[in-house]
Each structure stands twice: as C-alpha cells, then as structure tokens.
Amino acid sequence: MAILTPRIAPRVDLRNPGIPFDPGRIRDLRVNRSAVERRAATLPTRRTVKREWQAAWLIRAVQCLDLTTLAGDDTPGTVRRLAAKARQPVRPEVLRGYGLDPGQVRVAALCVYHAMVPSAVDALRGSGIPVAAVSTGFPAGQTPFRLKVEEIRESVAAGAAEIDIVISRAHVLTGDWMALYDEVRAFREACGPASLKAILACGDLGTLRHVAAASWVCMMAGADFIKTSTGKEAVNATLPFGLVMARAIREYAEATGYRVGLKPAGGIRTAKQALDWMLLVKEELGAEWLRPERFRIGASTLLTDIERQLWHTLTGHYAAAHHQPMP
Amino acid sequence: MGVTEILETMEYGPAPEAAGPALAWLDAHGRRFRLFINGRWVEPAHGVFFDTLNPGTGKPLAQIAEAAPQDVDAAVAAAAAAFETWRRTPGHVRARYLYAIARQVQKHSRLLAVLESLDNGKPIRETRDIDIPLVARHFYHHAGWAQLAEQAFPGYGPVGVVGQIIPWNFPLLMLAWKIAPALAAGNTVVLKPAEFTSVTAMAFCELLQEIGLPPGVVNIVTGDGKVGEMIVRHPGVAKIAFTGSTEVGRIIRRATAGTGKRLSLELGGKSPFIVFDDADLDSVVEGVVDAIWFNQGQVCCAGSRLLVQESIADRLIAKVRARMEALRVGDPLDKAIDIGAIIAPVQLQKIRRLCEVGIQEGATMWQPSWACPQDGFFFPPTLFTDVAPSSVIAQEEIFGPVLVSMTFRTPAEAVALANNTRYGLAASVWSEDINLALDVARQVKAGTVWVNCTNLFDGASGFGGYRESGFGREGGREGMIEYLKPVVEPVLAEAASGQPEAGAARAFSAPDYAGLQRASAADERLSIDRSPKLYIGGRQVRPDQGYARLVYDPDGRLLGEVGEGNRKDIRNAVEAAHAAAAWAQATAHARAQVLYYIAENLETRSAEFARRIATMTGRSLDDAGQEVLAAIGRLFTHAAWADKYDGLVHSVNVAHRDLTIAIHEPVGVIGIACPDEYPLLGFVSLVAPAVAMGNTVVVIPSEAHPLAATDLYQVLDTSDLPGGVVNIVTGSRDDLAKVLAQHDDVDALWYFGSAEGSQMVEFESATNMKRTWVSYGRRLDWTGPWLDGEEVLRHAVQVKNIWVPYGA
Questions:
Q1: A24–chain B nearest CA distance, Å
Q2: Can you give the pTM of this predicted structure?
Q3: Can you tell me the distance from the alpha carbon of B574 to that of B593, in angstroms, rounded to the nearest whole number?
Q4: Closest chain A residue to the Cα of B365, Cα to Cα
Q5: What is the pLDDT of residue B561?
Q6: Which of A16, B93, B482, B524 sits in a 20 to 30 Å window from B420, CA-based?
Q7: Separation of alpha carbons A284 and B283, rounded Å
Q8: pLDDT, tens digit, for every residue of B578-618?
Q9: How far, in Å, CA of A50 to CA of B407, rounded?
Q10: Which of the following is catalytic: A85, A148, A197, A227?
Q11: Which of A1, A7, A31 faces B317 most closely, judged by CB atoms?
C-alpha cells in the first residue's frame, strides 16, 4: 500500500472561511440511496445509551438545541416566554439530581423570524444565549437577491448572532452550482461576524446526490453550519439526509481542516429522535462534533419530551407533560 | 460514572440486554438437554453429556446430550414412521403447522435471541434484528410453499427422511433454512445442530411441542461429528442436507457416493467484495462492515476479499481504517457493540494462525488501537493490505473478522481476481454504473451476487454456491425443488418389453485385431473405409494413442471401429469445451436455432441413422426409426426450452425498492457418459438440454453402440454448431468417466451406466465438488416425458441470485 494521503490537521477554533469553488468535487460525488437508507436504518439499532449516559446525552441535546418559533402568530410576548425557557430549559431540581449546576445548562440559541429578533435579543440580554434569525426569504427563498442580502444585514444589525439562510433550490435543481456558490458566498459576507447556517431544504432537492452536492457547495462558500430543512418542506429532517450531509462534512474537514456544523431541523419531537441524531453524529463525525459549536437541533416541542425522559431516568417514574414548565 | 464526566467525553456506556429470562429458562431445564426423538425428550443411550460454552465468558452454559448410534436409529425410525402420515397430510395442514411455528418463533423472539447470543457469542443486535426475524420469515415463506406445493410442483412429491447437519454460525437460522423447506415439501427430518450451539434448537423443540407438531416429523439429535456421520451413513435417510466446511462436505459426498442419497451442500467461501472507482465509498465502507464484521466474520458468504480499483484504493483503505477504529467489540449481550465473541478457542487459534501466516507472507496487518476484552474469546477487526492473490490468506477461508485487500485496474481484472478461487458462494459489487455492475455480476462465479449491498438474505431467494461452495439452493422455488422428487421415477423394470438388450455388450476391453482381420477378409465388397474419429473442438481427430475399438452387432459381426479415447483425449476435449465458452453468451434464440438445425439435418438422414441403430442393436428397423424420430422431437423440445427455461424475479422481504433476479446460468463444462440403451436418443436427450442452456459438453457415447454418435458429428458439423460446444470421445465409459470425474476443470458430470460407475463418479467428483447426475445402474425410460422438462433442465443450470436494491 502506498503512503496514505495525509489528513489535514483540524483547525479547531477557526470558522470555515470557505474555499474556491471546485467543480470536480461536485462531479465526483456518488450517493447510493438504498445503501444510505440501510445505514441510516441500522444506526439507531447499533448504538444506544442507557441510564446516566442517556441522561448526559439528553442534557447535551438540550445544550445543542436551537429553540425555535417560526409561526405567523409569534408576538413579542410569546418570544419572551420562549427566551425564559431557553435560559432555564430543564427544571433545576432535575439538573441538581444529576449533579449539575442549573446555571450551566441552557440552550444553544433562540431561533426566530427577523421581526422577532429585537424582542429575543432583549429577552436574552445577559444570558449569553445568541439569537438566530431565519433569513433570505425563509422558507421558500423566492425573494429578490438584493432583499435577501439586505435582510441578513438588518438581522445582524438588530443583534442576531446567527443567520439561518435558505438556498435557492432552483440553483440545485438546474445544476447551476456556481450560482449557488456565489449566492451563499454573498450571504456569508453579509453575515459579517454572525455565523451562517445554510438550509438546504433537502426535501425539495429531489435526490440524495443533490443533497451531497448542495452540502459541498455551501461549505465551499463558507457556511458555518449546514442544516437539513426549514421545517416547512413535505419531508424534513430524516436520518438519510443527515447521513449524507455528515459524510460531506467529514470529507470537507479531511480536505480542508475546517469543521462545519450539522443542524437537523423539522419534525424532531422526541428524545429518542434527538438521540438517534446524536448517535449518527458521533458515529459518522466523532464525539468532537457533539457540542453546540458543531451540532444543533432545530426544534420547538422537543424540549418537553427530553424533560420527561430526564425525569424518568432520574426517578424511575414516567412523567406527565403538564409537570414540565411550558415554553 | 457521573453525568458531568460523561458530558466531557460523550462516551457510550454499557447497554446490557437482560439475560435473566433466558438464564431462568436454562435453569428451569436443569441446564441439561436430552435428545428430541418422536416428539419426546429422551436420555441418550450411552448417558453421555457434554458442555456447551458461552463464548462471551468462556464458561459453561448448559449440558448437551451426545447421541449414540441407537439414538440415531431411533430418530430415523421415528422420522420414517411419521413420514407415512406426514407425506399424505394435505398441504394446507402442513401450512398451518409451519405458520404456527413462525408465530411461535415471533412470540418467543427475545428469549431465542438472548439464548442464541449466550450460546454463540454473536451480538444481541444481530440475533434480535437479523437471525430470529429471518427464522420467522423462513417459516412464513415456507408455510406458503406447503400450501402451494401440489400446484407449484405437479408430479413431484417428498423425498423421505431427510438428514440435516448444520453449523454453529447461525444456529437457529440454519435450522430454519433446513427444516422449513423439508416440512413444506412433506419430508420428515432428523437434524443435528452443531455441537457448539445446540441450545436454541432445544428451545425450538419446545415450540414444536407447544404447537403439537405430530411426533417424529422433526427429530433433533445432538452431538459431535460422529453423530453427523451416523446420520450421513444411515440407510434409512433419503437425503442429506449439510451446511458447513468444504472439507466435511467432501467427506459427506464420498460417504454417500453410490447410495442414491440426494445431497445438498452449502459449504465454504472466500467471497469477493469488488469496489469500482465510481462507487459511493462511504456506503462501501458500511458494506465492508456488514460483509466481514457481521457475526465476527464467521459467515460462509462473508465478503472476505476486498478487491479495490487501484485509483481509489488509498482513499478507501483510509476510510475503512477510520471506520474500524469506531467499531466496538465486547459483551455479546451489550446492545451497542458491533462484534461479539468468536465461537470457541479452536476457532480463535485458527484465526490467529492465519494472521501470522499473512504477516510471514509479507502482508501488512492493521488493527484498531483499542484492545479487546480479555474474558471470553475475542478477536479485533483486522485488515490486511499488500496481499497477493497467491497468499494463503487470500485463498483460504479464515472464518473470522479478517479482511484481505487487493487492487485491480480494469473490470476484466476485477472479474479475474474475483474468480481466482475454488469457491463460489457469494460476491458483492459496488458501482454507481448499472452497466458495469450488472456486467460484473453476470461474470462472477457465485450463487449470490449483491450489487451495492451485502449479506442480505430472505426466504424467497435461493442461497447456495457455485464450484466448491457446494450445490443445491436454500430458499425460494429453487430451494424447494431440492426437497422434492418425481412421484413416478422413470425407472424401467429389468428387461422390460420394448427395451433393447445391450446385446453387443461383450468384452471390448482389448482391441481384437484378429477379429478385425477375420471380418475384413469376410467382406468381399469392401467399401471405402469410414473410420470414425474423435470429435474435439469441431474437428475430427485421431485418438492420442492410435488404438481402435471394435464395434460389433448383437450377432458378433464386426460393424466397424471407433477411436479408443484415453485421458489425454479427455483433457483435450475439456480444453476445447472451455475454449467454446462463448456459447454461453450466444443468445438463447441463437442456441435454439442451432438445435433446430441439427434436428433438420438429422431428419434428412433419418433412414441412415435408423439402419445404423438397427444394425448395431439388432432391433427392428421400425423400432430404430422410432428412436430417430424421438431424438428429433427431443431436439425440438430443448430448442424450445432454450429461451423459456428462464429465471425468476423473487419477491424478497428486504426493501420495496429491490430487484432480486434468479438467473439460470449454465453450469459450464459438463461431462456426459451416455447410456447403452438408445444409442442416439440417449445421447440427444442429455446433450440437447445441456447445450440449450449454454453449457459445453464432453460426451462419452454409448460404449456398446457408439456409431450413432460418431455418425452424428457430421450432422453437427453441418448445423452451425460452433466447434468445441459438443465434443465426443469414444472408448471405455467408466475409464473415461473417471478421468472426467477427477478433472478439476469439469463442472458437472452426468453418468448413465453401472451402479459401480455411478459410485465412482460421485466419489471422485468430491475433489472439486462437481455437480453429478447418475443412474445408479438403473435402466431409465429414455422415451419418457421426464426428459422433456425441468427434471433434466435443472441439472443443466445453476441459479444465481443477483440482488439489486435501487433508488433515485
């Protein structure tokens, strides 16, 4: 065997600045759907965590949670309530039961529409919890490019530290990878210091190969995270999508040294689902990805189920939803 | 460990499956299991028991009875008695029993899964998610065959008492693969589990009692190889079905030679796992995990030879090593481990020894950085690179978690490497190019080819080998036929009317020159000498040694002479037959056209052939003319079948997007020793189906009446038959058949002669496990319709199942 290609050492603390567009990467991508589905189906059967390990993993899920509200009827009041939950996502007595300082456990971010950014920033002041804004004509992305860039700038100006952009699906579906690259590159510039999460809207992309290609283009264009879905597509965060994206992230890290994050979002409602995603991330990317810098779960109702599971693991009693403080 | 610490590392913790209920079940049986004969538990005659170990701890799990000869006799007697009722039990009733077994397996699935893991050492994930669900599925599938057997296999019935011997790697699953089709077809069973792993078979017996299966239909005798030998040699057993090593399969083949026992063997493998540069490499890596680290690599069809296109080899090997680092070896009952324990110390030693050989041969061994548990029998996942095809570890079945890798440059080289093995059980082909994948799938010599997947199994798909991986199939239609035989055997009573006496069967052992001189002197009207030669590679050739064999009529008059073929002539004929392998690639339509053309040309010379047959055999001209007509009809029959005896698309229970295609492939080079009865019809009845299905043949014509066959080569010459497809070597049937039987590059041998010759053919064929079809000295009805259909055609093909899961 010849000498193996040396892996590029991870550049741990650096944001992904992106790399020049490399059409060869896109051309050479191969994704076998049935094999991906078999792996995705067996991942949760090959690994499991029990007892205190399960509790720890669920607490980490909370720490990686982008607590989200993206509804037409969001008001400053509901956002303030959610922000309060973000600060104290799990009942303090439960956390203390696990030997944890309640002040240490908070969610990763609060994710809202642009209009709610000021309320969210205000409500989270002093908590250290960043506000994430969905942007660029979320969820369909069918607004003028100029306005998309402007929307990012305004959200950042309003205090959003993270921007969840949607890509133009048309660029993927027409194979115009250069246009996609330029678009995301421009979004990244508009973000400035704010981190960029690129929503691929996998359910709109038609094939897993498109998912892989879109992952690569967004990473080459400088995305900090790639994210499965808006939550508004017909199919949202599935493990096969996540598997394809995780493998792209791994290969990108091997090629460049930059470790891009993964964010599944849409339809993750149970603690079991959250654990399955974490198993996928640990198996495919390694434990160093299981932290908020590189892994997020976008969800709105997941937290309640996690709290119930933590209660059960701690006490042996099955928990009632109404015992958990609602957001 | 505290939550705070776990949050630092995000490690996996222990996730043990509770063994309590399974251990309680063992305790309730006193951890001691007797024999299951005639529906009851009986003490072994000699009172001997042996320990079965838990490979995960190395400690004894239970005691198993060692059956004595009397016990095997009792089991066979019980099975024989039960057979008389069971064979007449309506298919629907048999279906109800099989259905009940399937349900019972499902109801007790977790108990069975935990017992299997305890007894075998395989991970609970595998027994829970793969072994036991496949067991239930197999019984469900075959409940359906029981229901349909009469309609699906008209004219066929059960074989009788079936002796079944199974291995330790999939104890309950192999039991299901054996018992389900046997019972569905109406047979009764004496089964011996592997001595290392009898426990789930004991639990299975309880399920049979619970559903009230009639006593004697299934009998389970435990013990070591000696018990297996008792079953194999037992005169009351009509068929042996064995899964295990090629070495033991060979012993069984030899032990049963000439007995008339039917045999299906599922043996070893060294299956290639072929990766092309356009494959989805990350999916390939998971395929490798499923191929060689499934069941600790103790899988007969394990993808143990990784063949990688050179351009991507470094990348793939790096990915595989990274993946190996993340594999988890440990307590088989832990729900989050990938690799459990090796079955026994003896197997562990074999794996270690072969790894040492690999290192000595200069290959590079790589293992993950972590250490295996010290208790129990564990071995880490292992990858060898820098392996040459000539290495021992590239040729020998290791039967452990050890992968050897080699590189290739082109598809042709991949196929050549893949087929550079004595085995042919399975193969896995990875490419996103459907043209490439299917091309390679067709060319690889293996009974199962998985395209972009591996180690998928289902009751609806036949599983079994090419070459020395054995013969027969398990699962699907092709598996059922193994447990069936024609209700009416085409055997003629001795000296039946209308049957020609082999009047010329005088001693032909030594050339009789004096006789030749006398005959020549007697014939004043000396015609131009027609001296038939051998027919090899489409040419008439003189026999290697220049001896002639005299042919007489029943009255002792010399009719002429044919070449006295010897071993070198057979060698040349086999080489010519291989050189004509392109015949298999001709379209079925094209092959049919040639057979029709042969029939046409035979017809124009039918009077001449009739006279020849009449003269040779002493039969009436009218009778001989009937034989010629029958031969022409049979050529038409098999020309017709050429493009109709085609395969199936199986409905497997794996994914909704899957094509599992059962293809009838030719066996290869078939040796055919023709009967003396019907010198022309016998020849044509055997050669036509073989050739129609794409085989090439080396034919030994009727020893007594060879001239019809030698006349026939002129017909073949004028019928567009490519040279080498049919080769004819005249001479001593048994001497020449022995050379064919001992030839390692002959794939099958059909022999229609004496009982002793049949025994010889089956015995000698064990060397390379060639498929045999012999007459055991019985006189068969060559005019019968049995020669017009599946009973013949199935000998001319082997079934290859190609699995093609797909998805946009």
A1: 13
A2: 0.95
A3: 24
A4: A1
A5: 92
A6: B482
A7: 12
A8: 999 999 999 999 999 999 999 999 999 999 999 999 999 99
A9: 42
A10: A227
A11: A1
